Amino acid sequence: MAWRLTVNLQHPIVGLPSNVVDETESEETREVRVLAYNIAGWKKVKLNSKRVCIVPVYLNCNEWNEDFGRFSELMWELTAKYEYCIAIGDLNGRISCEQKIPRHIIPDQHCLIRLDRNSKDNIMNRNGSRLITLLNELNMIILNGRTKGDNQGEFTYVGGQGSSVIDVCAASCSSLQLISDFKVDNEFFLRSFSNNTQTEDYE
């Protein structure tokens, strides 16, 4: 069964495509091309006056180490360049309820993100441990199990061999001020946003 991860933003954006295809190598278009290693591509959008990087992710369980290395390299590049980054998708790592964050990390006292996480999946595996380490180093906060819409840390995969939380959304600390909620729906995977802001293709 597939699931939908939905991030509700304070100022929603519209028109984010499922894939971004641009094979040119100019400085302007390099930033929106599809990556050739199981990450669907990333999109820079305008939210109010802020530039936000949305990174849809799939780490293939059969080539996880290679995909993780490329994902890691990409996220270091993006978080160094842009203040607002959100990565969302199937990371194929079980992270239990790990990643408690200190109070000073939260940028706004009115932020709706909790410091600790709940999760219906209490298993941490090797992939999950590496993901937690990377996200901590990047100062990116996992939203699963931390919001009103996902208070219990719902399963994102249910199959014949069991249930797990392997689909994750993580946001840079500065991005937390833009997020009003996060939830896991029992639907096919879709990045879902509402009306009102504009996207920029840089094409």
From TrEMBL:
InterPro entries linked: Endo/exonu/phosph_ase_sf (IPR036691)
Source organism, top-level taxon: Eukaryota
Gene3D superfamilies named in the record: Endonuclease/exonuclease/phosphatase (3.60.10.10)
Name assigned to this protein: Endonuclease/exonuclease/phosphatase domain-containing protein
UniProt organism field: Laodelphax striatellus
